[in-house]
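Quick one, tokens below. Sequence please?
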């Protein structure tokens, strides 16, 4: 889950709404890593009257764009907190 402070500081996020970040080892030992990475395309917007609310515009690919806000922050995490990174350490 992305917090307000992480949303203000990070430039890249992993989206886990469609699928989790996964690593698959094939029958011949090949490794496939499946991560949907999005990037921030603007500044994090905050409100003085609603301190818990935030909104970060994000972009994926050439044409897809959306926002991370307090309602959908559970579908994202920053790359430093990726479960694949924790599992390999």
């Amino acid at each position: 889950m992305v917090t307000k402070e992480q949303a203000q500081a990070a430039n890249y996020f992993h989206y886990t709404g469609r699928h989790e970040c996964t690593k698959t080892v094939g029958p011949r030992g090949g490794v496939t890593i499946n991560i949907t990475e999005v990037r921030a395309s603007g500044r994090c917007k905050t409100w003085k009257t609603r301190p818990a609310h935030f909104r970060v515009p994000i972009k994926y690919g050439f044409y897809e764009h959306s926002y991370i806000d307090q309602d959908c922050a559970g579908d994202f995490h920053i790359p430093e907190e990726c479960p694949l990174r924790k599992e390999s350490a």
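The radius of gyration is 15 Å. The helical segments are 4-9, 83-88.
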